[in-house]
UniProtKB/TrEMBL annotation:
Keywords: Cell membrane, Membrane, Transmembrane, Transmembrane helix, Transport. It is found in: Cell membrane. The keyword Methyltransferase does not apply. Pfam families: BioY. It comes from Paracoccus seriniphilus. Belongs to the BioY family. The chain crosses the membrane at residues 55-72, 78-100, 112-137, 149-170. One of its GO terms (molecular function) is biotin transmembrane transporter activity. It is a multi-pass membrane protein. The keyword Electron transport does not apply. PANTHER family: BIOTIN TRANSPORTER BIOY (PTHR34295), BIOTIN TRANSPORTER BIOY-RELATED (PTHR34295:SF4). GO terms for cellular component: plasma membrane. This is Biotin transporter.
Length: 183
């Protein structure tokens, strides 16, 4: 139990640290950040339940006002802005990514982690992000979904990086890949 809590806290911190990397601001209020790589890694390394808990911990810290999101943002205001759908979507994104890692064991870890990151960390995340942008920006869902296309190239690179990092961890310290453990 203590190890799980430590892993959850560690990955919440990893996502916060990734928020220190400079963001690329887009005209519609949703920045390109490295934090989605952390969301993907939560799922690929921690698994569904622990990965989602790490995200929930980070979102609690954000809600309390700590400026741990890219651009030193934090506080309740971020949950009503253009990024709200993406922030809420981080939880199911990490969960789905982790669930795929837990269930699909027949292929190489790098492939599974990359595909899981694309499905959970891009497709699931974009569904929430587009819905949030549609509401906040007063756009139709197809218009908001079209805006998310700006993120696709970078997020595919992040999914591949998540796959490679997860595979490297699996080779170096197999017991550290909690998404593949039976506990």
């Amino acid at each position: 139990m203590e190890k799980s809590v430590a892993h959850v806290a560690l990955f919440a911190a990893v996502i916060a640290v990734l928020g220190l990397l400079p963001k690329i601001s887009l005209g519609f209020g949703v920045p390109i950040t490295a934090q989605t790589l952390g969301v993907m890694l939560c799922g690929t390394i921690l698994g569904a339940r622990r990965g989602a808990m790490a995200i929930l911990l980070l979102l609690l810290i954000v809600a309390l006002g700590l400026p741990v999101l890219a651009g030193a943002r934090g506080g309740l205001g971020v949950f009503v802005g253009p990024t709200a759908g993406f922030l809420v979507g981080w939880v199911p994104a990490a969960f789905v990514t982790g669930l795929i890692m837990e269930k699909w064991r027949g292929a190489p870890v790098a492939l599974v982690a990359s595909v899981a990151s694309i499905i959970g960390g891009i497709l699931v995340l974009y569904a929430f992000g587009a819905a949030g942008m549609a509401i906040v920006l007063n756009k139709s869902l197809p218009e908001a979904a079209a805006l998310t296309l700006a993120f696709v190239p970078g997020d595919i690179v992040k999914a591949i990086v998540a796959g490679l990092l997860t595979s490297g961890l699996a080779r170096a310290r197999p017991s550290s890949l909690l998404s593949r453990s039976s506990a």
